[in-house]
Write a structure and sequence with these properties.
This protein is about 35% helix and about 20% strand. The strands form two sheets. It has an eight-stranded parallel beta sheet. Strands 1, 2, 3, 4 and 5 form a five-stranded mixed beta sheet that branches.
Length: about 375
């Protein structure tokens, strides 16, 4: 694979140079350590994992960004020089505080969300579970394999996908959601349509998972707020049908961060409190390989939003760009590798097709980190 050039350059500037900068700064935890009780680390979102440094990032005139690594041991001096005392205190509070339970799930742990596509055209499993009985059986199997959340979708959002009517989407997902909710499972509805959200919630869905960040339907924000349910806000550039046609960013990591912050603030104004919000950087949704890899390498920056993080990389095309011979169902290795990368960055939820293998890999990685 050719070398990937990112848009964030490591700055030759010294610490003082960044301290004198009067524009907005972004803070990404790095230098991860398995034991947060190390005296030179801080806990990552209240978990046992810790971080020992911050990557401080600023935008560059003309595009892109530059960054520097600041060990926590040097942070106090930098803060005094920069005059950003209140800002850093707020940032560290968001980066280190344990998240509130999300749909009654403890966010100190990493949860696996199992994907159930009740569709004929999803990119890797379209048609595999296209009937109500097949989808219910598949979801129950994923729960038995260790999925904490069952994500039910009735419309494919793969690149180039066509839209379906709300009536068809409701007919696909509601019987599945109702059966699983009656079983006592935690169910999320994967939809960008307000009418589907309403029907799914009535059927027992506990979470709204919207790839448009509640922007795809003018009623979505109102429906989500009135429901009282937690929501997952994802970043997507463009529409599913055309989103992979030459996506462009000034700096993918910072642009996605700013978008999600704006959506969180819009939700708060609409009556959806931050403790009801989870963010998803939207890997593969309007992003090139380099954009995806930049986001995966700096996932921890999104802890600065003060919300749980959902990561969805399972079987996605960026893995196929790294290993072109692998079909979607042959991307298990890359899916697990990116899931473990998410675990190392402290993400609280990972959305996957292959639940058993992902749960096992996280369990083994967690166990070895405790020794």
């Amino acid at each position: 694979m050719d070398k990937i050039e990112g848009s964030i350059l490591r700055s030759p500037a010294d610490v003082r140079g960044f301290a004198d900068f009067d524009g907005p700064l972004y803070y990404a935890p790095t230098g991860f350590i398995d034991h947060a009780d190390d005296p030179n680390t801080l806990p990552l979102a209240g978990s046992r994992r810790g971080f020992s440094a911050l990557e401080i990032i600023r935008r560059r005139d003309g595009g892109g960004a530059e960054s520097m690594i600041l060990p926590l041991l040097a942070l106090e001096g930098w803060v005094q020089n920069s005059g950003r005392v209140d800002e850093i205190n707020d940032v560290l509070n968001r980066l280190t505080t344990k998240r509130a339970d999300f749909a009654r799930l403890d966010m100190a742990s990493c949860h696996v969300m199992g994907i159930v596509n009740v569709t004929p055209d999803s990119f890797s499993d379209g048609g595999d579970y296209n009937t109500t009985d097949q989808a219910i059986a598949r979801a129950r199997d994923l729960a038995a394999q260790g999925a904490s959340i069952l994500d039910i979708g009735g419309e494919s959002t793969r690149p180039g996908a066509e839209t379906v009517s709300e009536a068809d989407e409701v007919a696909r997902v509601v019987p599945v959601i109702r059966a699983l909710a009656e079983d006592g499972h935690c169910v999320s509805i994967d939809t960008r349509h307000a009418g589907v959200m309403e029907a799914a919630i009535e059927a027992g869905a506990a979470i709204i998972n919207d790839v448009t960040g509640l922007e795809g339907d003018e009623r979505s924000m109102e429906v989500a707020a009135a429901s009282g349910k937690p929501v997952i806000l994802m970043h997507m550039q463009g529409e599913p049908g055309t989103m992979q046609e030459n996506p462009q960013y000034d700096c993918a990591v910072l642009d996605v961060y700013d978008y999600l912050l704006d959506r969180i603030e819009s939700c708060e104004r609409a009556g959806i409190s931050r403790d009801r919000i989870c963010v998803d950087p939207g890997i593969g949704f309007g992003k090139s390989l380099s954009h995806n890899l930049e986001l995966l390498s700096r996932l921890a920056i999104f802890h600065g939003l003060g919300c749980p993080i959902l990561l969805g990389t399972s079987r996605k095309s960026f893995i196929g760009k790294i290993d072109p011979a692998a079909s979607p169902k042959e991307r298990l290795g890359g899916s697990i590798a990116s899931a473990i990368n998410g675990w190392r960055h402290g993400v609280q939820m990972i959305r996957v097709h292959d639940v058993h293998e992902t749960v096992q890999s996280i369990s083994v990685t967690t166990a070895t980190s405790l020794v």
